[in-house]
Specification:
Length: 326
């Protein structure tokens, strides 16, 4: 089954790249085709009407259980294709939201907090009539999945964390920058600097099939609405920086599995650090075992020769480990 899933990934990646070939992408990715139909959940917040995009993928042979996938900061639902297929092949219904501020969802000027995003997702589940879920979060999505689990433990059957960020408190070693300074940096986004960041931060070695991730992340920079996108990116960076979850891992009360690439060296705000500071932080081969000890009963699964996105870099190994531990 896994080989069939893997063999389909190449076609899906090529398809995603084709749909992202336009030099300019809208900031809500209208010209990026997602692997499954996208619906929109209306939200009223801070006197604004906004929409959260999501995919609701139902299996051919349902087992009565649901998984909800939370994406990372620089991504959207489009990069979960192989994970969705692995879960639906086992009978799981899969809900894949683009968080507000990301992907096809509204780029709203609101106060961004993990608490509020968690509430949006809970309300979506309630509207869909889903009472219990397994929550899986990658990168920033791991921070959100942790917050969701802490807020709504009665709704969570299991917590799956894939290279979550926030395993350390960035405020203690990443220098503070004003939103205005961060905004100026975001406005400099280009294909070249996004690709350089992805090459050095996300993967142990670059492959051409990863280019579609860069095309989507950088394609929005040529939109006339990019200043709005850049401002929202700053607001969500501040959310990550100012709202750590690492002090609350011991309060998690649901079964948890932590998946990490042993070569992951992700640090939010890495560009602001000296080489010495970079060497002291963001070392997932150290942070993974340390974090697993903090979470009661947590199972740690590590992948050799893998960086920040195991489900893309080592898909066959990751999917087998994922389904074996669901």
């Amino acid at each position: 089954m896994y080989r069939k899933i893997i063999s389909s990934i190449t076609l899906l990646i090529i398809s995603a790249a084709v749909y992202a070939q336009s030099d300019t992408l809208s900031i809500t990715l209208e010209n990026v085709k997602y692997p499954y139909p996208v619906s929109f959940f209306p939200i009223r917040v801070e006197s604004q009407d906004i929409r959260m995009a999501y995919m609701d993928v139902k299996p051919a042979n349902a087992n009565g259980k649901t998984v909800m996938l939370f994406h990372g900061k620089n991504f959207g639902g489009y990069y979960w294709t192989n994970v969705i297929r692995a879960f639906t092949a086992k009978g799981y219904r899969v809900i894949v939201p683009d968080q507000i501020g990301f992907g096809k969802s509204s780029k709203a000027f609101i106060h961004y907090s993990f608490h509020q995003l968690a509430r949006f997702n809970k309300n979506l589940l309630n509207t869909l009539g889903i009472q219990k879920v397994t929550i899986m979060g990658h990168s920033m999505g791991g921070m959100l999945a942790t917050r969701f689990t802490l807020m709504y433990p009665e709704k969570v059957e299991k917590l799956l964390l894939e290279d979550p960020i926030g395993l350390e408190d960035y405020r203690t070693f990443v220098p503070y920058q004003s939103a205005e300074d961060d905004y100026k940096t975001e406005l400099k986004t280009s294909f070249e600097n996004v690709k350089k960041y992805y090459e050095t931060s996300y993967f142990t070695s670059w492959k051409p099939e990863y280019d579609y991730l860069v095309k989507i992340a950088a394609g929005v920079s040529k939109s006339a609405d990019f200043p709005r996108y850049a401002k929202v990116a700053v607001l969500t960076f501040e959310m990550i920086y100012e709202q750590p979850v690492c002090y609350e891992f011991g309060q998690i009360k649901v079964p948890t599995v932590l998946f990490t690439g042993k070569e992951d060296k992700t640090i939010v705000g890495k560009a602001l650090l000296s080489d010495a500071e970079k060497a002291r932080h963001g070392q997932y081969k150290i942070l993974g075992p340390e974090t697993a000890k903090k979470i009661p009963g947590c199972k740690l699964i590590e992948f050799d020769n893998c960086g920040h996105i195991p489900h893309i870099e080592v898909p066959e190994k990751f999917l087998k480990a994922l389904i074996d531990n669901i």
